[in-house]
Design a protein that fits this description.
The chain is an alpha+beta fold and 405 residues long. It contains 14 helices and five strands. It folds into two domains: 168 residues, no CATH class; 138 residues, Heat Shock Protein 90. The longest helix has 78 residues. One of its GO terms (molecular function) is phosphorelay sensor kinase activity.
């Protein structure tokens, strides 16, 4: 059963914790929700256009006038579809003004022929104004379009209530088209953002897996390589000791296999105390004099794992990049802070690290330490030694939050 801190892993890959790898969804245009939103918007546009079509056919005008009206209706519908495209308000201002001017002409000129039967198209114009123009300009013009629809019924000699009804329906139509278009755009952006978050989650999971493999296996594989070289030298003269080293190599290999399984399963707690013992055994085996000072109290799992991983990387770098004859390991806890210091001689002056943290390994450790509220320093120290310092609160904020949550 997983500990509580493993159940509250952060979504931020820099915290070094495991996230569920989500499969990125298909791009927003193929997702059901954006497609449904667009379908509703287009259905609303076609419904208003159908209402105007019925009005034209019942206006009692000539066939030529009916045909002209239907063609003009198709032109307005095409313009409205262009205006209702998500992100249409980001088009150049000149183009927006041109298309709005054309739509205004196609809205008001046919009123001379069809009178109130054409008035539904004013709702399209009102919606387009809201969609394309800045609010401080769009809303007053939106109101002007609504008020202009008070005139056609009055010219026909209809009651005032008909004028009010026509103005109100025009404003409502424009508001509905504006709302549906903005909703479609919002849904599309939301699903695009969800897809991006999913892709980042996958990338973060891959980085976590690569980082954990490096941190956990770099030390073990280095230990196996060094002990194998030692065994090769011991076999002729000291076969009994060579057999003992073989047993240790097998033990390290088994631990490496267990580490790989832990990484794959997202459960990779380590113990700093155990790692200090392993480091002493490893360094003793290659003839490095080790002095260790350990004064530790209870540590949170996050902190214990981060410090243990730091010690592994420090010992791995010591074996790879130095000719050390002695090493000092200090792990002390005082006033709520845990301090890990690894210092060694035999620094290889020819070795140059490409990154500020000494390579990808120490760079990974810097990320881990930052995630638990700590800090990491490494570099040359007095008397030509190399010193790595890691300092972190014994109970990190991330683990406290997980336990509390």
């Amino acid at each position: 059963m997983m500990d509580s801190h493993d159940r509250c892993d952060s979504a931020d890959e820099s915290r070094g914790n495991r996230r569920e790898a989500a499969t990125p969804p298909v791009p927003g245009s193929d997702l059901p929700a954006p497609r449904l939103a667009r379908t509703i918007l287009i259905a609303a546009l076609l419904s208003f256009a159908l209402l105007t079509t019925v009005n034209i056919l019942s206006a009692g005008v000539s066939t030529t006038a009916e045909t002209t009206g239907l063609l003009l209706l198709l032109m307005i519908l095409a313009l409205q579809l262009v205006h209702s495209v998500p992100g249409g308000n980001r088009a150049p201002l000149a183009r927006k003004c041109l298309t709005l001017a054309v739509q205004a002409l196609l809205t008001y000129l046919p009123l001379l022929l069809f009178q109130t039967f054409w008035a539904t198209m004013a709702g399209y114009l009102a919606g387009s104004l809201l969609l394309l123009l800045p609010p401080r300009v769009a809303w007053p013009l939106y109101g002007v379009v609504g008020l202009s629809m008070l005139i056609p019924p009055a010219l026909d000699g209809r009651p005032v209530i008909d004028s009010i009804r026509l103005a109100q329906s025009s404003l409502l139509t424009g508001f509905v088209l504006y709302g549906l278009t903005r909703l479609t755009e919002l849904v599309t952006r939301l699903h695009a953002a969800r897809g991006e978050l999913a892709r980042r989650a996958v990338t973060g999971e891959r980085l976590r897996f690569a980082r954990d493999l490096h941190d956990l296996l770099g030390y073990s594989l280095s230990a196996i390589a060094l002990k194998s070289e030692l065994i090769h030298r011991l076999i002729p003269a000291h076969p009994a000791r060579a057999m003992k080293e073989v047993d240790e190599v097998l033990s390290i290999a088994e631990q490496s296999l267990a580490d790989v399984r832990k990484v794959a399963g997202g459960f990779h707690d380590l113990s700093l105390r155990q790692e200090i013992k392993s480091a002493r055994s490893m360094l003793d085996a290659v003839g490095i004099d080790v002095r260790a000072e350990v004064e530790l109290g209870p540590l949170s799992p996050h902190v214990d794992t981060a410090l243990a991983t730091t010690l592994r990387e420090a010992v791995t770098n010591l074996l790879r990049h130095s000719n050390a004859s002695r090493c000092c390991i200090e792990a002390v806890q005082l006033d709520g802070l845990v301090r890990l210091v690894v210092e060694n001689d035999g620094v290889d002056s020819a070795h140059h690290a490409p990154s500020p943290y000494g390579g990808s390994g120490l760079g990974n450790l810097h990320t881990r330490m930052t995630a638990v509220g700590g800090r990491l320093e490494s570099g040359p120290w007095k008397d030509g030694t190399f010193r790595l310092l890691a300092e972190v609160p014994a109970q990190s904020a991330s683990s406290t939050a997980c336990v509390g949550g």
